[in-house]
Amino acid sequence: MMKREEKRRILIGLIKKMKADDNLPLKKSANNLVFGEGDVDAKVLFIGEGPGYWEDQKGLPFVGNAGRLLNELLETIGLSRKEVFITNVVHHRPPNNRDPEQFEIKAYQPYLDKIIEVINPKIIVTLGRFSMAKFLEGVTITQVHGKIKKAFFNGREIIVIPMYHPAAGLRNSEIKKKLFEDFKVIALVLKDVLNKNSSNGKQNILQERLI
Fold it and tell me: How far, in Å, CA of 167 to CA of 199, rounded?
């Protein structure tokens, strides 16, 4: 199992590589790389779609209105941003907050895959349809939101819980209500995961951010 300092070293190296990669299609129109933030030993990894205006300004994921709702959702299940890891399928802001194109998602895919590999989470929570499509094909988010799914990544089975994007909850009160209900599923699955790992000793929760 990879140690925390090794994870940090690899991820910091990945940030430097992304900043130097002029082939990333959204780089020229963005102000900042929005790599990700959180606990490098996180059991839960959240993957959103792409940075918005405030994320692009600050270089951090989910720091605008959708981010405030995400923080609130996390609090309802007893978690904070410091205990999870948050990233996106594309790491530069698409112009005018448009949806990312498939070729753009594909360009960032090797970096996202490396983030997932290094964090090695027990649970991946996808926020929105673009991150959901990375793991689940032929379904719509209305069909599977809040449901526990199994997917294969890097040769191993992983739990995936698809969710609506918090931004959708800001636009639609019914979706917002569903988000609060769906987040309870994360707590149940995480409790089950931790119970299975309890024989390995008390969980160590890092109290620092990667960047």
Answer: 39
Average pLDDT over residues 74-103: 96
Averaged pLDDT for residues 98-123: 97
pLDDT score of 165: 97
| DSSP letters spanning 122-184 | SEEEEESHHHHHHH--S--HHHHTT--EEEEETTEEEEEEEE--HHHHHH-HHHHHHHHHHHH
pTM (2 d.p.): 0.92
Q: Is the dihedral of CA 10, 106, 47, 93 positive or negative?
A: positive
What are 87's two structure tokens?
């990233």
What's the sign of the alpha-carbon dihedral 23, 29, 31, 32?
negative
Per-residue pLDDT at 198: 63
Which 8-state DSSP code applies to residue 85? E
Residue 154, pLDDT above cutoff 90 = no
Element (H, E) at 48: strand 44-48
**Token couple for 85:** 């890891």
pLDDT score, position 40: 97
Query: Into which CATH architecture does domain 4-21+28-198 fall?
Result: 3-Layer(aba) Sandwich (3.40)
Distance separating alpha carbons of residues 146 and 104, to the nearest angstrom: 27
Higher pLDDT, 155 or 165: 165
DSSP state of 98: P
Name the residue ranges covered by the structural domains of the chain: 4-21+28-198
Separation CA 7–CA 114 (nearest Å): 11
